[in-house]
Amino acid sequence: MATRILALVGDCYAGPGGIARYNQDLFEALAEGGADILILPRLGDARGMALPAGIRQLPPVFGRLSFFLSSLLAAWRHRPVDVVFCGHVYMAPLAWIVARLTGGRFWMQAHGAETWVGRRNAVRRAIEASDMVTTVSRGTRHILMSWAHLEEQRVRVLPDTVRDVFTPGPPSQALVDRLALGPGPVLLTVGRLSAGERYKGHEQVFAVLPALRARFPDLVYVVAGSGDDRARLEQRARELAGDPAAVRFLGFVPEEDLPDLYRLADLYVMPSSQEGFGIVYLEAAACGLKVVGGAGGGSGDAVPDERIGVLVEPSDEKGLVAAIARLLAQGRADQAAVDPYRRPHFAAAARLLLARLMAGRRRISGGS
Amino acid sequence: MCGIAGIYAYLAVAPKVDRAELARMNARMLPRGPDGSGDWHSPDERIGFTHRRLAIIDLSERGAQPMHSADGALTITFNGEIYNYRELRAELEAKGFRFRSDSDTEVLLQLYADRGPAMVEALRGMFAFGLWDSRQRKLLLARDPLGIRPLYYADDGWTVRFASTAKALLAGGAVSRDPDPAGIVGFHLFGSVPEPFTVWQDIKSVPAGATLTVDASGPHAPRSYYDVASALVMRAGTTARDSNGARGQLSDAVHDSVRHHLVADVPVAVFLSAGLDSGALLGTMAELGARDTLAVTLAFEEFRGKALDEAPLAAEIAARYGARHIVRTIDRAEFERDLPAILDAMDLPSTDGINTWFVAKAAREAGIKVALSGLGADECFGGYPSFSDVPRSVHLLRPFGIVPGIGAMARRLLTRARGAGLKLHPKTPGVLEYGGDWAGAYMLRRSVFMPWELDEILDPAMLEEGLRRLSPLSLIAAELQAGRSLGDFDKVAALETTLYMRNQLLRDADWAGLAHSIEIRVPYVDPFFLAALPPGNVLASLNAKAAVADVPRPPLPAASRDRRKTGFVTPVGRWLSDAAGVDDDGSFSTASRAWLLRVWKAGWTGPLAA
Predict the structure, then answer these.
(1) Residues 272..301 of A with a Cβ closer than 8 Å to B: which?
(2) Where are the domains of chain A?
(3) Which of A107, A315, B368, B433 is the most exposed place for a label (fewest CB within 10 A)?
(4) Does B15 touch chain A if contact means CB atoms closer than 8 Å?
């Protein structure tokens, strides 16, 4: 019989951002393996969207109390529930109650930043009661286990996966002509320019452009993405980069145009200090770009070794210059290093974890 | 004895095994196996084993490791000895298995092929191994029933690493040194770190008597295949004999165990004190036909000519059984010279192991590779004061447990009274609070510090977190979970065997012995031996700790029976308190407290200084 999963998540289909996408990838992998999944999101209305077989998504419910009541209602409708999946650390106590009432196993998913601060006692106790916790990175796992007492075998890592649209290939001539970036080399950063996310490291790159252009006179730094910090960053670029032609702000780039943008660049550079995982590094690498990323957070998991790239200390300007120069000379990223992040591996790992969860003993007592 | 390690990159995204990392792990274990070294990597390089060999059985190259099955499907890296390997081999040969070497290692491979992971239940010996099954793509980690051989692992969510020592895992360079508050608090409470904790968050011990399987989804929960309390319950159900019959049963059990522990292709020596337990081993060895056995005794310059000196009586015992006796005298200067090396060899912080360090050092100087030790006899025969103290405390104080809060109140009052100058042992205020149940009374008896005393030693947040995770009373009580029906003697035996002996004595015997490339064998630590003894209440009424003197023929000399049970009297306590820089008030408890803090100050967790 199909494993019946009730997924309580922040967002999934019709939701923006990395976590929504991760949830979609995960549920599709499980549904392809025969699971029957009902999603209750707090945000993102997927009514009218065609969802893959085995997946249904309820209308979003934002309020805490109404979300709780809706989850009980959903659990009743979806009964018998085998697994209660909880997509956010803050929702752990609620998911624990639902798991207890339904008799389902409790699968907790932790992403990045939220595990670094969320240490309320109720949250901790709920997580400690879970049957399985999955994290996207080893770093998140390590941090989570420093404040929640969990045996190592209960905390598994399921890394982000790269979507199939990201593949190597020749640059699009139309885009080359339109951007007219010159002979290059071209450095690229893709990401929101948000005042709340100033850790991405754009300014660190601006600051080393004069040194880089002394060695590579035609080097251009392309910044893709929009946000409320753009004006300030443009100002900083003018102050730091020396030559106004050294930095190009592209504004928002739709997802379907990203592969072409990556293929046109020579190196992906983002000395970020707080990536939860750094999926963008992998998307760049999957299109053939080597990566200079930032140490810290969980990004070590997207850049495991030099076949994909290196991580530098974001504040170390000399190190950043040296890494960029060195990786520019190395050429393209090794696709054999990217392959394990692609869908088939991700789907197999996800289904193996579900099987493992179902084979184990349920920890929470109560329910049916 | 040997050192083993391995790396398994189980998740697809994990990079292949780093050969240099495995080499660093191997190098950190050099003294564990100076006779040879081997590595193996799977063709896809997702799993690698390493091995340092101290050759004891089948000294030829055919006994080298890592070893593969004939079809290449199984690979093992193994640390330990299987004493019944010849019996097992005969069984397998009768089933049609063919052998290529005379090693016990090959028996493990074939036995796994025959029985799968359940094979561990048939093994008599001390062992820790990693076995790769390439058909199922599964790694099996296993540890002997009582925890003689150590085995640690670290799982980062992509890759699992294992090794005989925690320090080898760290030496590889890929395992975090971040502290584990549970292990740190455990060390401060007990003087040794209770397994499965270590003082590092990412490193855990494979529990004694358990197997652990790692597949493509990572390590699964350890599976226990042996539990001391359950074994004692089974034994308690055996028919009791009269006292003569029981003495005979005790004697047979010791003979059988010693015979098994003599299996080796190199000479087997013995660590001999003036006590009955090691003397009985030597006497039994002689009776079984061992000739010219080397017996090593530790003596202290400070005790020369005094009643505390064990050497004269040990010499008498050695002479009685025709052993060649080596007395090795150490003094404070040698202790101080060796201290840095001792702290470096110490795998997890411990307040003990110094004596073993020196007796193993002496054995090494005498060219010995294997020695029997009387370790574990006190746990089997009721040799510790805890066998009377703990039950007395429980029976006397249990009634107070019905008044909630009375114990804690008494503790606070008495702590204040101590502060005001009342002369009390620092643990005394907790007697009413802890002494009324088995776990509490045992902790009171065995702890170096009690939880309420640690406020002044450890960071409060770390202490709180450590106590929460460690949950020391539940940890102790868990060892009795299957033993509710046991009598007093067996309850204490279960606690001493699974806590003090496992976490302190055996771990210390491992690092302190192997720092000098000495394999220490412990015939009193053996599930087969344990099961062959009479039930605990019979052992108690027999006064087994004295009766062991009559096990060998001829029995031990009268003087060794008369010797006051001095416990562990050495000048080491004084050296330790001096090394720790405190005034010695003559009590071992003060010395061990000071020494504990000195050991901890050596620096265990966090970034390396150099």
Answers:
(1) 301
(2) 4-161+343-359, 173-339
(3) A315
(4) yes
Of residues B290, B298, B287, B284, the one with CA closest to residue B266: B290
Q: Give me the CATH code for the A4-161+343-359 domain, please.
A: 3.40.50.2000
- Nearest alpha-carbon partner for B21 in B222, B156, B217, B218: B156
Cα separation, A109 vs A132, whole angstroms: 8
Relative orientation angle of helices B488-495 and B228-236, to the nearest 10 degrees:
160
Give the residue-averaged pLDDT of B409-437. 85
What is the largest distance, in Å, between two alpha-carbon atoms of chain B?
A: 77
Closest C-alpha among A69, A72, A67 to residue A6: A72
- Rounded mean pLDDT, A342-365: 92
Contact assignment for B178 to A142 by CB distance below 8 Å: yes
Domains and CATH numbers, chain B: 2-226 (3.60.20.10), 230-570 (3.40.50.620)
**Residue B16 phi, psi dihedral angles, 5° rounding:** -60, 165
Exposure string for B82-117, b = 16+ CB within 10 A, e = fewer? bbbbeebbebbeeeebeeebbbbbbbbbbbbbbeeb
Structure tokens at B455: 């406020």
> A142 and B202: CB-CB below 8 Å?
yes
Quick check: B15 and A305 CB within 8 A? Answer: yes
Residue B222 sits at the vertex; the CA angle it makes with B220 and B224, to the nearest 5 degrees, is 145
Q: Is the dihedral of CA A49, A53, A55, A56 positive or negative?
A: positive
Using CA atoms, how far residue B363 sits from A151, A342, B267, in Å, is 40, 57, 12
Fold category of A173-339 in CATH: Rossmann fold (3.40.50)
Q: Does B201 touch chain A (CB under 8 A)?
A: yes
* DSSP secondary structure string for all residues of A24-88: HHHHHHHHHTT-EEEEEEEE---TT--PPTTEEEPPP--SHHHHHHHHHHHHHHTPSPSEEEE--
Q: Fold match between A4-161+343-359 and A173-339?
A: yes
- pTM higher than 0.90, yes or no? yes
Using one digit for the tens of pLDDT, what is the confidence trace for B312-371?
A: 999 999 999 999 999 999 999 999 999 999 999 999 999 999 999 999 999 999 999 999
